[in-house]
Amino acid sequence: MPPSNASAHTAPEQAVQAYFKASDQCSSQILRSAFHPAAHMLWLDKAGALHSRAQLPWWRVLDTASPCRPALERTLRIIDREGPMALVEANSRFDTYRFHDYLLVVESPDGWLIADKVFQRLEEGDAAPAPADEAEIRHILDDKIRAAGAHDPALLASTHLEDCIYSAVHAKSGTPYVRESVSEWAAKYAARKARNEDGHEAKWRILHAAGSGTIGHAKLEVVSRGTRYIDHLLLLRTTDGWRIAAAVWGNPAKLTSES
């Protein structure tokens, strides 16, 4: 189906640039064109406490900002793009601090939108964040894969933040985009386990895993019943270790604009 909005973003970079513009102009109207309305941003404060902000409170923050301070510099980099899914890194520098983001961007029926983001705030004088320990991230990913094979809801839960959302893009026929909580996935696993179903038919690979400081990202591939799917994951390094904070998954061979 074609995008329902004639002004929809036609590339992931356009959605990210709209996000930058919304922040620089303190405009919730522009922000709504950049983010899916159910999107969240997640971060850890200096003490390691987890925070999450939905779109509605973010709109209020933008619309009441006085004065509105635009960034001194902004950059973006496409870490990975395959079909209707992209993983993007964004940096925004202000006078005494900067933000480092990882963004999940999807081609929805309303064009390319940011589905979720994680970020870290770095103050002036802070040392550059150390690269993430890839082995630690891969350990969590291996547990996620084992949970899928065994349909183990407890193991699945141990690898995710409890409010993690999975955005599915062309995961099912006729469904270009849908969001599901990790709790819904855990319920599916529990039901399949009760039916003694075996999930080991699906063949998984970790294609990459990386990060910086308290934020990370990964890409997985799975072939199930002859169809290849990918997962783009955002992670946070909590006091309990790395956890999956948000995800986009689906069939990269299909494009929403062609459906």
TrEMBL record:
Gene3D superfamilies: 3.10.450.50. It comes from the Bacteria. This is Nuclear transport factor 2 family protein. It comes from Pendulispora rubella.
